[in-house]
Predict the structure.
Amino acid sequence: MKRESSWGQRLGKAGDYFRDGDLTGLAKEARRFWAWKRREPFVPQEKPVVSFAPQERKQVQDLGPFDGFLRFQQGAFGENHLIAQYDPYLIRYGEYRFTLEMLSPQPGETILDTGCESNIFILYLAYLGCNMIGVDLNPQVWDLLRERKERVEAETGRDLQVDFQAQDATQLSLEPESVDKVIAISSVEHMFSDRGPGDRLAVAAMARVLRPGGLAVLTLPMSNGGPFHESPHGDAGFGAPYRLYTPEALEERILSHPELETVSLRYLAQTTPDPCYEDLGFFRFWMESLTEKERAKWAWAVPILTAVFNPIVSREEGEKRLETVNTALICLCKKEKPAGRGPDHAGK
Ligand SMILES: C[S@@+](CC[C@H](N)C(=O)[O-])C[C@H]1O[C@@H](n2cnc3c(N)ncnc32)[C@H](O)[C@@H]1O
């Protein structure tokens, strides 16, 4: 009944446009009609393609420690939504959320950010009172990072402890066991070296500088179900050196360091909360149907869109539907030294 009256109204409108000679209005009504005619009838599926775990629903409403980061971003940078503009792929906020949940950063801790670039996450950890060491191969990233740091300091009235060092994270010059925690957000996949596989070397360098019991959070791009991909000079897919991982490649190259044990491996996996649409549907709409300008209008909603359409899923769920998995979220812990194995006991 409702539909009839609504189509009655549409017909009336079309009549008005016709009477007024408004061709644009008539064309609009014609497009509406054809879109309605061509629509796929809704066929309920027997089994939901993906169902939202109650835990995921909760994460959308209650962003936990991540909420503090969003408030920090808003407070210091207002409507600029820096992360949403930097990352149209709805990945970064998920990576930062996982990192905060795993790391639980505490004031006074020394945290190393490898491949920190100019992003504000390092500034947020410094704002929480951590002593941050930011390492990046590219010394120029400090220009923008310093500018942003000064802005945060001016807005908050706090001095941020950020020691930026332009160096190669595959051969860190920091002292052994000198940092409490390490983060590497979408950076290790870009690390290459003449001395061997750059990602393994970066993990080994982290293991060396972490104190026993210290945590490392790494996030890495996945191959969406394809084979492991390594491009030391960049290619048509991405213009700089990078890798795309599979679960097996993660196991071999990242998770198998003898001094590190895996605390958590989870994934970001494209998902729809509505079983009548395919998992990648929203992502295609977001990236292919919208222009950059249109996406920018929704920047304020990107943390929520990320949590809904590219949520954190368990290792088991992600590996069941690898074609939707775009990012691995990993937390490692440096093993404690076995009791009685200090230098005094050598050879006993
Ligand atoms: C995608 S960006 C990292 C983004 C950043 N972590 C964030 O939170 O948005 C990758 C960074 O890794 C840096 N990088 C690449 N190879 C490196 C290496 N061997 N050592 C240190 N940094 C490296 C690049 O210069 C670049 O700034």
